[in-house]
Please model this.
Amino acid sequence: MSMIVFFLLLLIITPIVLFLLIISFGRLTNFIVENFAPLISYPVLWILGIDFHINKQVDPLPKQAVYISNHSSTLDLFTILALGLPRIRFVAKWELQYNPLFFIIGRLTGQVFIKRQKSKKAIETLQKSYDKVKRQKLSIFAAPEGSRKHKGIIGPFKKGPFRTAIALNYPIVPIYFEGNRELSGGGGSMFAKPGKCIAHIHPPIDTSDWDLDNLPDKIDQVRESYKEWAGVK
Model:
């Protein structure tokens, strides 16, 4: 039911988004991404009985940063969109474009689709977007675990989002979703039960002294923080 509502709302909103983008010559892109994404997500969360809260430990949110989060639940799609992050562009899996609505809105609003199975190709795709991201003073959102289907509560972290932060000279803003995994059963489950989810938006992590040599250690430090938040020893 929730996915049906989500796609119905997406179907209704798509022509509105197209109209706004056309008449504004693309200048309303940030407004659309920041405001229409929560507009679609909150009704779905309400139908699912999800009590969603955002705990900002930094305010205002950085407008130029690489936002990352844990990812092990189908609920993540809705809670990520519900955040309404400023000037955000999402790094998403290539297969989402097989849905024509995702393809149209994603391409027109400048989202970044990567082939996660081909890490070299994914890095090349990200590198091509750097100039545009910096020029337009945008932020990036990516899940370093890559897929929600992984072993353990916090899966291995891929280097992509962190290399992006180095290349852009952006801070990393960690977001920890509390409750998403428990309410959806984790991994590939398509069902969710009612309950409470909290998005903890933590203070930015300075990456100015990061480089390719110390990157593995820096990634491990960030992942250890996620394990601590998740209560994993």
Summary: The chain has one domain: 2-230. The chain has a mean pLDDT of 87. The first helix runs from residue 2 to 23.
